[in-house]
Amino acid sequence: MTALPPTTAAAGRRGTAGRPGAANGAPAAPGTRGTRGRKAPGWLGALPLLVFAAIGFGLPVGALLYGAVTRDDPATGATALTGEHLQRSLQGPYLGSLVGSVQLSALTALIGTVLGVLIAQAVVTARGGALRTAVLTASGVLANFGGIPLAFAFVATLGISGVVTRLGRLDSLGWNLYSFTGLAVIYLYFLVPLMVLVILPALDGLRPQWREAAQNAGATAWQFWRHVGLPVLAPSLLGGFVLLFGSAFAAHATAAALVGGSVPLVTLKIADALSGNVLVGQENVALALSLDMIVIAGLVMAVYLPLQRRSSRWLH
Amino acid sequence: MAALTPTAAPARPGPAGRPEARGTAGAGARRRPRVWRGVVLTLAGLYFVVPLLSSFVFTVHIPNQGVSFAAYTGILSADGFGRSLLLSLGLAAATIALSLLLTVPALLAVRLGAPRLRPVVEVVCMLPLVVPPIALVTGVTTVLRWGPDHLSRTPFYQTFLAVQDESFPIVLVLAYTVLALPFVYRSLDAGLRAVDVPTLVEAARNCGAGPLYTVWRVILPNLRSSLAGASFLTLALVLGEYTIASLLGFRPFAVWIVSVSGAEARMSVAVSLLSLLITWGLLLVLSRAGTRGAATTGSVPSASAVPSASAVPSASASASGKE
């Protein structure tokens, strides 16, 4: 993943610089096909993937877009463009759920970024290879440990009759797992390992020589981080934050298994609307909400990919 | 660090004092990180281990009654367990096969025959990251609704029904393949980047190998660890996926866990715990396989990091995929 951008960049560069070469490659293809007869064109291998993507991805997303901006008139059967669904998806409880999702994602992503960096830095500064391998492996597993199993593990731990809740008498302290805070605690369980995986290579890229140079110049540890460490890490940190935000934002199963409808989240609202729990005439609001989500996730990715590219340019 | 300046200042007259001063400063600087490092790692360890431990305690210890392993022994005979697990495993196998069959030829093609398609293939494979599973499933339901609405008189209708077959819903395989594309692509792309494909193909051709033989016996063995990584990520994604399956009304493993949680809280926690342990085991096997494939001992840590590094997006995606 960290290695991805350079190639893309290289591919892009090759695309423009190599335009003449590519140009003579492409027209040449029919020629070679003509001489050898049976040779398949080079793009044939990519065809199944592109066809599949058009059907499996393009079709549903197209239907989603179409449904979000059109309305069927039940009387005449005519279809008309409308901004009504999108407008409704940005009002009242639907807007509340979008805001709730954004708040929860931003908060957990922020905490997850800080904790992930602390853990990764602890691993990087410790010299034991075994600790590093263990943390990397555990992070790889735990970052994937989302969804239903995670929700139930936390129900058993911090739920109403959870083991820790009973041992610590947390319920008398006002603890409630089925709340915004509870969800944040659970989300961190897969967000922090994700951050560790993202940031560890970047922390590795901070050369010890830079630190030594700063020390020799009389810089304190704080000055080193303020003027050298953080600026170099900034793209990776922001990129990691954005990735965590996206993960938390798209999360549905944990919340669905846990809080039902008690915390307003856009994924829960969409699932609700899809299951038919919606007022007559508002069926398409699920599509409009999904479109809102795609727009937000798209913005997130639009921030993430260039940052990723930039940080990998610095740290290799 | 603050100690460095005063110590270094008196040391100025004698050059011999320099190394000594540096030594004490170094030791001081090193001791402080050791404390915070210990604190951070201990707290993190607690946060990540306690839920697992207490899940186990929760499943075997019944308040006022003592210890019982009934939650585990009852799993196999539980209603629907076998069927839903088999369905999930079948879906996973089909998804892995389909996603590899689609991406491997495409990635080889953009390296060998059509380099100009490369950005296209990359964008196509990465786009699903922008569409959360819950948004994908709303699109899929919309498309599936067209079936009865518009197509009931056409031959397409049979396709719509076959795709939604209860015993093996192909529509889930299609949706999961879409979700898995970014991770499979990244894993294979990372693997292919370490291999000089055109040279290998040329060498194989010079030795008289046909194209299929070249792919099967020369290219794929070189990609073994990234193929395994891609398969594992897909498996984890499909086994844990809940959103799409439940909203389309099918009952694979994750949906089953939720459906028994009401009546059998202990069992649902036990199954969750087991599924984590199984995933963990698979990942260990995978990283072991990755390190065995590595040529030098120097690359062992990096080899074990490759699945995790490629697991980053996958992690995010499969976290979101499961959600």
From TrEMBL, chain A:
Cellular-component GO terms for this entry: plasma membrane
Cross-referenced SUPFAM superfamilies: MetI-like
TM spans (from-to): 43-66, 104-124, 136-160, 180-203, 232-265, 285-307
Topology in membrane: Multi-pass membrane protein
Matching Pfam families: BPD_transp_1
Keywords of the record: Cell membrane, Membrane, Transmembrane, Transmembrane helix, Transport
GO BP annotations listed: transmembrane transport
Superkingdom in the source lineage: Bacteria
Localization, UniProt: Cell membrane
Keyword field contains Disulfide bond: no
Record-annotated ABC transmembrane type-1 domain positions: 98-304
Region (Disordered): 1-37
Membership in a protein family: Belongs to the binding-protein-dependent transport system permease family. CysTW subfamily.
The protein's name in its UniProt record: ABC transporter permease subunit
Annotated source species: Streptomyces paludis
UniProtKB/TrEMBL annotation, chain B:
ABC transmembrane type-1 domain boundaries: 85-286
Any Gene Ontology CC annotation: plasma membrane
Family: Belongs to the binding-protein-dependent transport system permease family.
Alphabetical keyword list: Cell inner membrane, Cell membrane, Membrane, Transmembrane, Transmembrane helix, Transport
Intracellular or extracellular location(s): Cell inner membrane; Cell membrane
Source taxon at top rank: Bacteria
One of the Pfam families matching this protein, by short name: BPD_transp_1
Protein name per the record: ABC transporter permease subunit
Listed GO biological process terms: transmembrane transport
Main location: membrane
Transmembrane segments: 39-62, 85-108, 120-147, 167-185, 227-245, 265-286
Topology of the protein relative to the lipid bilayer: Multi-pass membrane protein
Residue spans of biased composition, Low complexity class: 1-28, 299-323
Region of interest (Disordered), residue spans: 1-29, 297-323
